[in-house]
Design a protein that fits this description.
By secondary structure, this protein is of the alpha/beta class. Helix content is about 35%, strand content about 10%. It starts with 5 loop residues before the first strand and ends in an 8-residue tail after the last helix.
Length: about 240
């Protein structure tokens, strides 16, 4: 469901001089003899990446997206701010936010866990998730307000006291999902279903218990988010979208 991991190399340069994408067929099978050494080969290339929806991108398509694409979209969003969720990637952009306290670590030490969660969310839902680690005493309300400019949904790995949040932001606790649905805290499949339900149904604000229960059986493949305007423009000059 979308690309979860890819490599970029000189051998995949396209005719226009831009870098292409070399997808992995899958991760290697690991044995217990030296797991860390085996993992290093995988992790050195990353577990996930951001890639275009179009199978090929040319200088012509990139130019068309910018002019008239970007200028016209900016104009329309200025007139109708709600279009940001249908004309940009904001609605599908999910932040995975943690202070590390759930795992007893903080700062950079929690990044391996965040990468793993991001890959799971992408695999199970197709949504684009991004990891953010904050200090334990971070002002959560200010953080959520800042993130809402670019991200439409925030998945909190820890439970925190509800704070005031922007009216167009979705916020849900992964720990609360695990408690309510009685799933393992490390199992992100149900969480991905819940996120898809919340995003697809514009369930802005703090996710309720009813939202979480309804989302637990939601089928990610029914996601009906509009394609971003950039993707629409790219289909005019390239092959069909993924």
């Amino acid at each position: 469901m979308g690309c979860t991991s890819l490599n970029i190399s000189p051998s995949t340069m396209n005719a226009e001089g831009g870098k292409g994408y070399e997808y992995r067929e899958g991760f290697p099978s690991l044995d217990s003899s030296d797991t860390y050494s085996q993992l290093k080969a995988v992790l050195s290339h990353g577990l996930f990446d951001i890639c275009p929806k179009a199978k090929s991108v040319t200088q012509e398509s990139l130019g068309f997206i910018y002019t008239p694409g970007v200028g016209e979209v900016c104009t329309q969003i200025s007139k109708h701010p709600e279009l940001v969720d249908t004309h940009t990637s904001r609605k599908r952009n999910i932040i995975i936010l943690t202070d590390g306290s759930l795992f007893g670590v903080e700062s950079k030490k929690v990044l391996p866990v965040l990468d793993w969660y991001v890959m799971q969310i992408k695999h199970y839902s197709g949504l684009d998730a991004y990891p953010i680690a904050v200090p334990v005493h971070e002002n959560t309300e200010k953080t959520l307000e800042d993130l809402s400019n670019v991200y439409g949904c925030v998945l909190l790995l820890e439970n925190i006291q509800p704070v005031n949040i922007p009216k167009d932001l979705i916020v849900v606790s992964h720990q609360r999902i695990s408690e309510l649905l009685k799933t393992d805290i490390f199992d992100a499949e149900k969480t991905a279903n819940v996120l898809t339900y919340l995003v697809n149904n514009n369930r802005y604000g703090w996710a309720t218990n009813q939202d979480i229960t309804a989302g637990s059986t939601f089928e990610p493949l029914t996601l009906s988010i509009h394609y971003t305007i950039i993707s629409v423009f790219m289909t005019k000059t390239t092959r069909p979208m993924l």
